[in-house]
Each structure stands twice: as C-alpha cells, then as structure tokens.
Amino acid sequence: MIKSKLALFLLGKKEGFDMGKLVKFVHRSQYWTKEQWTEYHNAQIAVLIEHAYEHSPFYKRWFDTAGLTPEDIRTVDDLVKIPIVRKNDLIAHGVEFRADNAGDYAMIHHHTGGTTGTPCAYDMDRYSWALNWALKMRTFEWGGYHYGADTLGVMAGGSLIPGKRGGWKNRLWRYVNNYYSIPISHLTEDLLEQHYSYLKNYHVRFMRGYPSALMILAEYVCDHHGTLPMQAVFTTAEMLLPHQRKIMEEVFQCKLFDTYGCGDGMGNATECEMHGELHVCEECSIMQIVDKNGKEVKDGEEGEIVLTALYNYGFPFIRYAPGDRAVKSERKCACGRETKMIRVLNGRSSDNFKLANGKILNAFSLPIEELTEEIRQFQVVQEAKDRVSLLIIPKGTISKERIKGLQALLEYHCGEGITVDVQVVDYIELPVSGKRRFVVSKVK
Ligand SMILES: [Zn+2]
Predict the structure, then answer these.
(1) Were 212 and a residue from 6, 208, 345, 436 both cysteine, which residue would form a disulfide, CB within 3.0 to 4.6 Å?
(2) 53 vs 72, 309, 315, 316, CA distance in Å?
(3) Distance 152 CA to ligand 1 centre (A)
(4) pLDDT mean across residues, the chain
(5) Ligand 1 center from residue 159 Cα (angstroms)
(6) Considering the entire predicted model, what is its pTM?
C-alpha cells in the first residue's frame, strides 16, 4: 500500500490538492444517510445560486427571464422553479456560462459530445476535477483495485489515456499511475496478441475502457485464447449493451462495473459490488430525474437527467439537462449505501430518430442481441428523414436470407414510407474521440 499512498501524494502535488483528504472524504460520505445528503446539498445551494447570479451572464439572464431572484432558491426543493437549461443553450451561449471571475478557480478546458453527436465545450475547475477523480477511484476500489499499486489496463481512444504522448515526464507519470495503455486506433491482430501476452504475463487484473473498445480485446481473446481472467473490468463513456456485458464477463471471468458520467454538469453514477442499479455520486452534483414539467418523477418512473454542479463556480451548471434519460429508483441497495439510485436507459434522447412518417425510432430499441450473433460491428444511420441504413461488419460470411431478415426487421421498426437498406461493409468510421457510436443521424 506504500506505492498507492506515494502515487496519491504525487498526484496531489501535481494537481495542487490534498488528494488523500478527498479520497478519505468520499470514503466517509458513501455511507451518509438520506438526511445527511439533503443537509449537505442544502448547505451549498444558496451560495451557488448567489454566485451564479452575480458572476455568470447566462444565469443572470436565465433567472431574470424566469422572474427569479437568488432569494427564491434556498434549498434543493426550490430548484424546480428554475427552467431546465439544455445542451443547445450550452452550445449557443457557452462563453456566457463562464463566470466573470473564472480566473480565481483554475479552470481546465474540456470538450464533450462523442456519444451524443453534438460536440460542445465547457470548463471544469480543478477542485471539481479532483473530487471527480476521487469518486472514480472509489468506484474502482469497489472492484478491488488500489491506485498506483495495481496495474490498470486502459483501453480507449485518446481521452481516457493520460499522458498519451511520449517524453520522459509522461512516461514517468504513466509509471506512477501504473497504467498500461492500449490505444485502440490502428489495432492489428499482431498488436492485440502483444497486448494479450503483456496482460497475461504481468498478471494485470483490472481493465478500464469504452465497452466497444474492450469488446475488440474480448473478441480477440475469445477467438484465439478463450479467456483472460481479470478481477474487475470498468466500463465508461458509452452505453454498455447487455450482450457486451455477457461476452466480456465470460471472457474476462469477472463482473463488470459500469459507470455513467457526464462532464458537462459533473454528473456521475456508478455500479457497486452488488451490481444492481447505479449509485449516484452525490458529492459533486445534485442529480434529479424529472418529467416534462421539470418535476422529479416518482420511484420506478422514467425521466430526463438534470444536473446541478455543486462546485464548478468558474463555469456553473444549474438545472442542466445533458440529454440523457434514466429511471429513478428508491430501492435500498444491499451494499448499505443510501445514495440515490438510477437505471440509465439504453440510448440517449439524441439517439432517437424522428422519421418522416411521424414515428420516433430509438435505435437501441432494435433487438441488438439478435444482430450480434453473426455481426461484429454495426451502425444505424439516418441518412434523411425518410431513409435509414444499417451498416454491418459480419463475423464471417453472412447469408442473403439473413440480410433480407435484417432488412425486414428495420422496415418493421421504421414503419411505412421509410426506405431502409442493409449495407455489408469492411469498416465503420470511428470518431476522433474513439467512442464508437451505434447510431448516427445526418438529419439536422
Ligand atoms: Zn450498492
């Protein structure tokens, strides 16, 4: 554990925070009661609202337009009075979100939008970053991982791989972190074999990555070696589909820990060792699941995720909806933690295609498990309001009957008046972020 403590100390030095203290805080807070959470959130609200009203031009205008003053919002229960702020508002007015005293908060610039297809930029202050990091580590610990002491295989595009460039500083930093990086661009079978050998020979027991990235390794291992036992695998940034979980749990012979994360809004929710619904990380933001009137839904009901970041003073996010949907759960988890629980729904709202015949098609509602028996990769593309394509890369050869079957499936889900076609391709383009998108709409 000395290595773990040393790595934490060095990270704190690099980031300018006592990371050990933050880690201790999130270890304690995970067992807070519902009453303690309410008290903690209420203690932050008034100061945050007053700050945003005074320093963020966007929120000043937003409050004024709604006829609200900071005095109207004193507790979490008052948040419902604030109209929902949407991703489109962030895209259109991003600069105005920024506080006029943002310079006091050591901001880090971020981009998002890989999975939603609507890229946008925002700033995160260093404290929110550090708190998010501590929360991420807590989730990894639920899977048995110890930062710095255990090697973590990281399989993703550029954004999840810290210090991906060369140079001694980055190499040293990777050594301290004890990450083993597997960049997913330009992977070949030879490279996959090399990575497999490394992971096996050096007894790497933990992996992290996008589901689609980890699937590349899982499928290679499955075809050539059968299994590659791990202690825990952490998935993030993309929707984890049921068939992906099944395959990876078989190949890696361990449970998956899925996470929902939303940098714009500082929302996080993670799977615990009981592997049920996701625990909301309530330390960094208030997550509400709301109906179309902005009111919190009841237990078991579906709604839109709305976030209020508690500490991102330099770039406030208040009542911000990133475009994701979830089911609220008031079930008490067997692990004893009393945080809010959610079940994130397959597909973001931006994954819904509005078709010319009036139907709304959610591509994740297609029977994807049926597709994956013979198909290595697929993507549903809305080419126009009345035209939808399914791109597939088959695992081997695929029969004409099967393609006809897929065509019929797509026709059935799209309804009358929509032209659909199934295209067998060799390659499906990957965005720069490396996050694979199952659905893409070319319709503005
Ligand atoms: Zn739990």
Answers:
(1) 436
(2) 12, 15, 12, 10
(3) 23
(4) 87
(5) 28
(6) 0.80
